[in-house]
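Recall the central idea of this unit: under ordinary conditions, the amino acid sequence of a chain determines the structure it adopts. In this exercise we apply that idea directly, starting from the sequence alone.
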Amino acid sequence: MARLTVTLRDDLHRALKETAARRRKTIGELLEESLDFYGIKSSEAAEALVSRARDNARMTERDALALAVAETKAHRRRR
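Accordingly, the structure predicted from this sequence is:
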């Protein structure tokens, strides 16, 4: 597992620690959940997701990629 050093404002760090304690999770778990929520994925994971979607929908690679891009943009606009 990789390690990461992040610099945060003191108030944000305190809020993150409090939230982690309240939810009985580690700060790392909260960060991973946030990254998942925002759709942060490696290129390989994104390609695998598109491949599974294409297989399930019987779509061409081009159509599946276009749909994935459109859905991602729509999701980001809703935030």
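The chain has a mean pLDDT of 88.
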